[in-house]
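## retry 2 of 3
previous attempt timed out at serialization; input unchanged, resubmitting
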Amino acid sequence: MKFPFLASVVIFMVVLHHNLRKGKKIGKRQEDSFWKKEYEANTTRKQPLDDLQFITFSASEYIPVHLLSPHEVSDFFASFPQLKEILPSLLNLSEAKIVNLTDYTNTDLKLKYGVANFNLLSEYEENYLSLISYLHQYGQCYYEAGFYEQALTIFSYAISIGSDSSETFILSLKCCNTLGKDEQFREIIEKAQLLSSHRKNIIFRKLKESGLYND
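## retry succeeded, writing output
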C-alpha cells in the first residue's frame, strides 16, 4: 500500500525539479535578453525627435476667470488655497515641452531615440506626468465646489491627452451623471476601453466598485 504513495512522491519531486530547472532557464534567458537590449540601448546613437507628438497646453483657457463668473472666483480661491500652487504650476507647464511617453520603457526610449536624448525625453515625460496630476487636482477643486460643468471640461481635456488616472475617469463620469450628459458618459467609457489592458482593468474595477459601470 505504501508503494503507490512513495511512487507518487517520487514523481512529484521529479516534476517539481524539472519545472524549477525549466523556470531557471527561462529566467536566465529573459535576464540575458534584458541586459543585451539594455546594452544596445546604451550604445544607440542620437536619433532625430521629429516624430514626437508634443502636447500644447493653453493654461489661459482653464484659469478661473474663464470658467467662473467674477463673483465666484473670489470664493473659489478662498475655499481652495491649493490653487495658489496649482495655477502657477499649470501656467509654467503651458510654456514647457510636453510629450506622453508613458507607453515606452526607459530602454525603449534609448533604443528609439539614442541615449544622448534620454535626459531630454525624461524631462518631456515628467512635464506630462505633472500636467496630468495638476489637471486632476485642479478639476477636483471645481468638482468639490459643485462646479460640475467646469470640472468635466478639465477632466475631459486630461483624458483627451492620454490620462489613465482612475480617479479622473471616476470624477468625470460622476460629472456626466450629475449633468445628464449620457453621450459624453459613453464617450469616456469608450476612451477607457482603449487604454492598456493593465490600466483598463484597474479603471473598470474601480468604476464597478463605485457603481458607475456594469457589464
